[in-house]
């Protein structure tokens, strides 16, 4: 069960945004990721709880940020309920999309589990509902993912396979790279892996 800490920063000006303390593991039904977020000053700022089924679909998502809460799952596309900080108002949403995304590294792992790309495969288009900080506002985005490189590195714990993905935002054409090993993000825009207490899980 990998445990560790990511630092999250603005991908454009590198302003520190948060630290995300996480643990994750494959299970009998798929994969689960749980994390707590703190501000650069050390105050609690949110949490992530994401569970996927064996096909990589989100069977349960619970996000907290800035007093806002979103609960969602794959149902007729993806369906969610967003609750305001007072708890007085809840709005439901549903979009014909494949999964959710957001600032947490969990969503990058989830997308790769859903797509199951191979190095020789063509780029694959995916529609996601992005839940954007600081108020978890939902926005539908279309992306293209391609697995452009796979390298194996020798480590003290055995060989480590690192996948490099090229992600393209289809509305702007902007591209960026995401480096992942198992169920841990090594590097991505706005994300740095600062600490890892145990090796990444290996997916079959």
Automatic annotation (TrEMBL):
Highest taxon of the lineage: Bacteria
Entry protein name: Glycolipid-binding domain-containing protein
Organism whose genome encodes this protein: Streptomyces shaanxiensis
Lineage: Bacteria, Bacillati, Actinomycetota, Actinomycetes, Kitasatosporales
């Amino acid at each position: 069960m990998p445990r560790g800490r990511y630092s999250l920063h603005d991908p454009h000006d590198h302003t520190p945004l948060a630290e995300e303390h996480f643990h994750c593991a494959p299970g009998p039904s798929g994969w689960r990721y749980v994390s707590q977020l703190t501000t650069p000053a050390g105050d609690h700022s949110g949490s992530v709880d994401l569970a996927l089924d064996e096909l990589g679909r989100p069977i349960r998502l619970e996000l907290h940020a800035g007093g806002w809460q979103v609960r969602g799952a794959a149902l007729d596309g993806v369906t969610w309920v967003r609750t305001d900080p007072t708890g007085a108002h809840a709005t439901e949403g549903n979009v014909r999309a494949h999964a959710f995304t957001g600032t947490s590294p969990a969503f990058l792992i989830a997308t790769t589990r859903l797509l199951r790309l191979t190095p020789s495969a063509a780029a694959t288009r995916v529609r996601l509902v992005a839940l954007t900080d600081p108020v978890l506002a939902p926005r539908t985005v279309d992306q293209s993912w391609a697995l452009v490189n796979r390298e194996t590195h020798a480590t003290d714990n055995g060989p480590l396979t690192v996948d490099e993905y090229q992600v393209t935002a289809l509305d702007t054409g902007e591209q960026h790279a995401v480096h992942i090993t198992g169920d841990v993000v090594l590097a991505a825009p706005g994300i740095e892996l600062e600490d890892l207490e145990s090796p990444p899980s290996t997916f079959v």
